[in-house]
Amino acid sequence: MLLKELSELNGVSSREEAVRAYLRHRIQDKVETVYTDHLGNLLVVQGSKKPGPKIMLSAHMDEVGLMVVGIEPSGLLKIKPLGQIDERVLLAKQVLIGEQRIPGVIGAKPIHLQEKEERQKPVKLSALFVDIGAQDKKEAEEMVKIGDVAAFDVKAEKFGDRLFKGKALDNRVGCAILLNLLEKEYAFPLYYAFTAQEEVGLRGATVAAFGINPDLALVFEGTSAGDVPTAKKHQQSTRLGQGPAITFMDRSVIVNQALVERLVETAKEAKIPFQFRKATTGGTEAGVINQARTGIIAGTLSVPCRYIHSPVSLLNLDDFENTIKLADAFLKSIERKGLPE
Amino acid sequence: MKELIRKLTSVSSPSGREEPVRALIKEEITKHADEIWEDKLGNLIAAKHGGKTKVLLAAHMDEIGVIVTDIDEQGFLRFSNVGGINPQRLVGQRARFANGTIGVFGAEKLEENQKLTLSKLYLDIGARSAEEARQKVSVGEIATFYHEFSDLGERIVAKALDDRIGCAILIEALKRVANPQNDLYCTFTVQEEVGLRGARTAAFGIDPDLGIAIDVTGTGDTPEAERLAIKLGQGAAIKVKDNSLITHPMVKDLLTDLATKNNIPYQFEVLPFGGTDSGAIQLTKAGVPAGVISIPCRYLHTPSEMVDLNDVEAAVRLVVAVMETKLD
């Protein structure tokens, strides 16, 4: 299963190689051009000679993770996060480090040794370490180096009726959507960007958009769902099973009104369920694409994911499939009606 | 000029929805520019040619507002901010949507010691049900403050003087300039309040040799105010720094010399917060020397912003002086 394979690849920001190689292998025989730029974006061109507007579709390959920043005399590793991770979720999780996928366990001082005040607070990142089973620093150094990165070690699987769980659904689900769209034919030039380093500051998309310079860009994301019993309805950014989430505004972009309207109109016409992403916090690559060169119309479609940026997130497979359908219907609407104006 | 300011502040044009004010400005400047165009983000650019040096003069068209994120079963709207909005100052104020729908800001009952945040506030548009509310407004629509323009004589009060006053100054300067000595790009920018976004793409397209923004700044001249050496009525403010920019010394000296030579009252502005379009302009391509001509303004980001018309006049004269001085 595509989502399972993508989820189980490790591609912490700046170390996207495994994801990039997997994607390249899957698509290289099917596309006109595929290349990697200096930041590690995997860029695909389809139909460059076709008339019509240049459309860019983007999804980031990278996931949040940890970087090894020190090795203690005991052989335990000190770590820092790459991307936004709630440090309270880290304790006792299993990780895989580096290209060799060295297994590690995140540990801390045991509870019976903690002071009373320490027990009342979550363990801070500075008090966490990764245990790779080394006896001392020398043995640890034979297994890992400072600067290696760790990704969560989690098996992905379908569960329940239509749910799927795994790590890095933000944003392997976006990569899976792009792979699905790559199978289809459109009447205009399409530029697919599988981007690097989104989680550390939208960096891959910044240079990809400058290079491609499209007329319109659509970003695909896994976004935070808020449908838990302890959140009020108006604070629930998105809900699982309610369809693709259309962004009208977040911290990075106010999406062009005509683009939002076209997405809504397209969903209604094709009878595809959709929801608005209600939170205006967070940012996506649409923000930096929108600001590239003299400005590019850019929006975001997201698949709602619960427990995002933690070792395991989950999504609804209907939302995933409906996001592909909406994207396809939107691209076909450009064939019929041109760009949204 | 009062009438122009009244007109400019009477329209509702939040970030990302600048069309009403753009149309108004376009009408005002059409006769006074050599070329006018809009770019992809909606910046309105008026070129007036006179010399070789490309000067970008920027005033932002957008104003702060609130964006609807949810409509509940009773027809109350929940919202998020577009630009810097202080939740403590909202209750009892009114907002207006593009279609004219008016709403009043209300707040949930707070528990003791609970902080008033935007998520505890709602907008009441007088709807008796969700259905009635949805007929008037939908999720994703943006409202701005609703308050009339008041003429206090030498001083005026209005919503959105940040930065319609900058737009008015740039329009007036474009009308007054007789002998432009530089290649002028008067740019009315979009989406400044959400992160200097319009200026960034406009500057990339224009690729100027010099950038000057015209925008409001805070004052320290009210009772028990935060210390700030800027006063209403003491002249145009030449920015030295804010959080987005340390003014290029050459630009600061240029503006100071022009003010002195032309007997234009001025004061220096050292702002410990905030940013303007010049912050984005200076970082364009390989870098652009940039500065700001500021208009002191009280009660910033509220429905009642106040400026002194003598400062406005000083700013117009300083902008015209930049336009009419050959810069190499």
Summarize the structure.
The complex is a heterodimer of chains A (341) and B (328). By secondary structure, chain A is α+β, with helices and mostly antiparallel strands.
What can you tell me about this protein's structure?
The complex is a heterodimer of chains A (341) and B (328). Chain A is an alpha+beta fold and 341 residues long. Chain A has two domains: 2-63 and 167-337, 3-Layer(aba) Sandwich (Aminopeptidase), CATH 3.40.630; 65-152, Peptidase M42, domain 2 (Elongation Factor Tu (Ef-tu), domain 3, Beta Barrel). Chain A contains nine helices and 17 strands. Chain A has helices spanning 2-8, 17-27, 116-119, 137-143, 169-182, 203-212, 257-269, 285-290, 317-337, and strands at 33-36, 42-46, 55-60, 65-71, 77-82, 94-97, 102-107, 129-131, 149-152, 157-159, 163-166, 190-195, 216-224, 245-246, 275-276, 297-306, 313-316. In chain A, strands 1, 2, 3, 10, 11, 12, 13, 14, 15, 16 and 17 form an eleven-stranded mixed beta sheet that branches. In chain A, strands 5-4-9-6-7-8 form a six-stranded antiparallel beta sheet. In chain A, strand 14, helix 7 and strand 15 (275-276) form a beta-alpha-beta unit. In chain A, helix 1 crosses helix 5 (169-182) and helix 7 crosses helix 9. Chain A is globular and about 65 Å long. Chain B is α+β, with helices and mostly antiparallel strands. Chain B folds into two domains: 2-63 and 159-324, Aminopeptidase (3-Layer(aba) Sandwich); 65-145, Beta Barrel (Elongation Factor Tu (Ef-tu), domain 3), CATH 2.40.30.40. Helix content of chain B is 27%, strand content 27%. Chain B has helices at residues 2-10, 19-29, 130-136, 161-176, 197-206, 249-261, 277-281, 309-324, and strands at residues 35-38, 44-48, 54-60, 65-71, 77-82, 94-97, 102-107, 121-124, 142-145, 150-151, 155-158, 183-189, 210-217, 236-241, 266-270, 290-296, 305-308. In chain B, the strands form three sheets. An eight-stranded mixed beta sheet of chain B has the order 1-2-12-3-13-16-14-15, sandwiched between helices. A six-stranded antiparallel beta sheet of chain B has the order 5-4-9-6-7-8. A three-stranded antiparallel beta sheet of chain B has the order 10-11-17. In chain B, strand 10 and strand 11 form a beta hairpin. In chain B, helix 1 (2-10) crosses helix 4, helix 4 crosses helix 8 and helix 6 (249-261) crosses helix 8 (309-324). The model of chain B has no long low-confidence stretch (mean pLDDT 96). The A-B interface holds A 233-235, 248-249, 254, 257, 260, 276, 278-280, 290-297 and B 15-17, 39-41, 43, 67, 69-70, 72, 78, 80-82, 119, 139-140, 191, 194, 197-198, 200-202, 204-205.
